[in-house]
Automatic annotation (TrEMBL):
GO terms for biological process: carbohydrate transport. One of its GO terms (cellular component) is plasma membrane. The gene is LOC111460687. The chain crosses the membrane at residues 32-52, 73-93, 105-125, 153-181, 187-209, 221-240, 246-269, 281-303, 323-348. Belongs to the major facilitator superfamily. GO terms for molecular function: symporter activity. This is Major facilitator superfamily domain-containing protein 12-like isoform X2. The keyword ATP-binding does not apply. Pfam families: MFS_2. Keywords: Membrane, Transmembrane, Transmembrane helix. InterPro entries: MFS_2, MFS_trans_sf.
Length: 366
């Protein structure tokens, strides 16, 4: 409900401006920031509870990774569905002015909110509270102290790996469209086609990962494979010339594979950390999600601020020459590559034990 209300308010215009019957940059900043903050509260509540369900449905490590990969696969379906909604709106409604463009994006937002609310109702009505096939020792309602997790070395290792993975995903998504248009000078359609390729291959790999029998070593191996692929993509992005811009479609395919490998295994490392301590899984998911949002926000703020200053400096004092490497290239190429390298290094130092590893030969629930 918070996501639906806040998201519709952000795309509905400046609410304080309408309320006070005047418009100013201060009112717009306060209005949009307020509803953006509400959106993040609602999104965090939904995300943490949904991720925690993975641990509560089953103790089987292979089952948990299968659920995480399924979750990521349908996340890609949601992203692709947004492109489908946008294509439908753009084909039906033709924009001839700035007001028409605002109307188009407002319609995309409202349709997406409506579809999301429908699936929330389906989830609430159709999902029963699961009961584990394997008994959990101790009082199932007893809370686990926060300090319990802070004493575990694996908590800090998993936190680093997860946050670095989210940095890769969020930073690369933020700069992808700018890189495709401003640095590679590709057609406007590439801003939709390149992300679509990433989502499609992430979806395919996420489905494939459900067929693997998972152990701690395999989690580390697959995560490292995704990190190495991202390091390769980052290096290519840094040196890719405009004349070879079509090669970006190949790079996007590799990015899609790398994203799926790192996200699915990164989330699954949390399930290994939680193990049987189900009453603490919400804190693990919530604290890691909190770190992810704070660090991603700081990283994007720093990069975008630096990008604005650099662009202003170049436009006033120096002409743009062929040797110039934009902040967008660094944001899409260097930052994810460095994060991938650090993530692989942290992952290889982990001591992961994934019990109950077996094929999915039985249903997850009783």
């Amino acid at each position: 409900m918070l996501v639906a209300v806040s998201f519709s308010s952000v795309f509905g215009g400046c609410i304080p401006c309408i309320f006070y019957s005047r418009s100013s940059s201060t009112l717009r900043t306060v209005g949009y920031s307020f509803f953006a903050a509400i959106f993040n509260v609602g999104w965090a509540a939904t995300q943490v509870s949904h991720m925690s369900m993975i641990n509560c449905i089953t103790l089987n490590s292979t089952s948990r990774v299968a659920l995480a990969s399924c979750r990521n696969a349908f996340n890609m379906v949601a992203n692709l569905s947004l492109y489908a909604v946008a294509l439908l709106v753009f084909s039906i409604s033709k924009a001839k002015s700035h007001v028409d463009i605002e109307h188009q994006y407002r319609m995309i937002a409202y349709i997406s909110i409506f579809i999301g609310c429908c699936f929330v109702v389906v989830f609430l009505v159709g999902t029963k509270e699961p009961s584990l096939k394997v008994a959990v020792h101790g009082n199932r309602h007893a809370r686990i102290s926060w300090s319990y997790w802070f004493k575990k070395v694996l908590y800090y290792q998993v936190a680093l790996a997860y946050v670095l993975t989210r940095l890769i995903i969020n930073v690369s998504q933020a700069f992808l469209a700018y890189y495709v248009i401003n640095d590679l000078h590709m057609a406007q359609s590439a801003t939709a086609l390149v992300p679509a390729i990433i989502y499609v291959f992430s979806f395919i790999i996420s489905l494939t990962l459900q067929e693997v029998v998972w152990t701690g070593q395999r989690l580390k191996l697959y995560y490292s494979a995704g990190g190495i692929l991202w390091m390769f993509c980052g290096a290519v992005i840094l040196i890719l010339p405009t004349s070879m811009s079509a090669f970006m479609y190949v790079v996007s395919f590799v990015i899609g594979v790398a994203n799926a490998l790192m996200v699915v295994t990164g989330v699954s490392m949390q399930t290994v950390l939680v193990g049987r301590d189900l009453n603490g899984c919400a804190f693990v998911c919530g604290s890691l999600s909190f770190l992810d949002k704070i660090l991603c926000g700081l990283a994007l703020y720093f990069l975008e601020s630096f990008q604005s200053n650099t662009a202003l400096h170049i436009s006033k004092y120096n002409p743009l020459d062929a040797t110039y490497i934009s902040v967008t290239r660094y944001g899409l190429g260097l930052v994810p590559a460095v994060c991938a390298f650090l993530g692989v290094a942290v992952t290889m130092s982990m001591d992961l034990h994934a019990p109950y590893a077996k094929y999915l030969t039985e249903s997850l629930l009783e």
